[in-house]
Design brief:
about 130 residues; 7-stranded mixed beta sheet; 4-stranded antiparallel beta sheet; 11 strands; about 45% strand
Length: about 130
């Protein structure tokens, strides 16, 4: 099975930037569509961004992060990234990386579409 490990979270002030990384196990990373989700206290887990399998040519961003976050993948390093800029206090959440192994060349937006999850990394943005 696929194992995912997130890193890069931390405590920052509003307006600052962070880059999250998600390292995946295995030799078939390029086949996986990847997603970033977040969950704040008392809130449901929500999709933040997603990227298609293979070349990652198709991406999705939730409205609250459009223009501020960028998702990318490096298949040679088995890693997907989430570059977060102009962070706001409302971005505070545990951020999770997830993988879908369907290799269809598309992305997915539902938590139910992702059988593989990392442990999460905390992002806290102070005002």
């Amino acid at each position: 099975q696929v194992q995912l490990v997130e890193s890069g979270g931390g405590l920052v002030q509003a307006g600052e930037s962070l880059r999250l990384s998600c390292a995946a196990s295995g030799r078939t990373f390029s086949r996986y569509a990847m997603g970033w989700f977040r969950q704040a206290p008392g809130k449901e887990r929500e999709v933040v961004s997603a990227i298609s399998s293979w070349s990652g040519g198709v991406t999705y961003y939730a409205d609250p992060v459009k223009g501020r976050f960028t998702i990318s993948r490096d298949n040679a390093k088995n890693t997907v990234y989430l570059q977060m800029s102009s962070l706001k206090p409302e971005d505070t959440a545990v951020y999770y990386c997830a993988a879908n192994g369907a290799s269809a060349g598309t992305y997915y937006l539902s938590t139910r579409d992702y059988p593989y999850w990392g442990q999460g990394t905390q992002v806290t943005v102070s005002s």
